[in-house]
Design a protein that fits this description.
mainly alpha, single chain
């Protein structure tokens, strides 16, 4: 079982090389070319990769902890349905909020009390300003990008009948 999984992982890794080179290659090139110093490419590259390593590890650990606890609390098809519907609801809420922000404000609408003044940039504005100049921060932000190589295939991933649990 382990050799087949290693072989499948190696094959998936080899098949995703073009995607990774096309998507992450320009990001790494940008992050590593913007830092000064005696050898900006090497130093920036290590900082960029360290940022990626830490952020992918943190996001993976968080997703594994949430998914693992949800899978043990609610087993079988009900657990899968609950997770799927929860993710769908979260995406719907995010899409509605994004759509509402893109519309022009209505006439007579009050300004938000959360808005920061011209002298106080928000946390997002401060991070976005610093992001292109700091390779470690830029690398950490790449964990928030969608990755086509990590997405499941469109036909799904089915377990063979002998591996399915009895309760599902």
């Amino acid at each position: 079982m382990i050799p087949e999984a290693l072989l499948a992982g190696a094959a998936a890794g080899l098949a995703s090389i073009p995607h990774c080179g096309a998507m992450c290659g320009p990001l790494a090139g940008f992050a590593c070319s913007r830092v000064g110093g005696p050898r900006p490419g090497t130093t920036a590259l290590w900082r960029y990769q360290l940022g990626r390593l830490v952020s992918y590890g943190a996001v993976g650990a968080l997703a594994g902890a949430i998914g693992g606890s949800a899978a043990t609390l609610i087993a079988g098809r009900w657990g899968a349905a609950l997770i799927s519907w929860s993710l769908a609801a979260a995406l719907a809420v995010a899409a509605i909020r994004s759509w509402q922000r893109s519309r022009p404000p209505r006439a007579g609408a009050r300004a938000s009390a959360v808005q920061s003044g011209p002298g106080t940039p928000s946390l997002f504005e401060r991070v976005a300003e610093r992001l292109p100049r700091e390779p470690a921060l830029f690398g950490a932000a790449t964990a928030l990008l969608p990755c086509g190589a990590l997405a499941p295939p469109p036909w799904g991933s089915r377990l063979p009948p002998e591996r399915r649990s009895a309760d599902s």
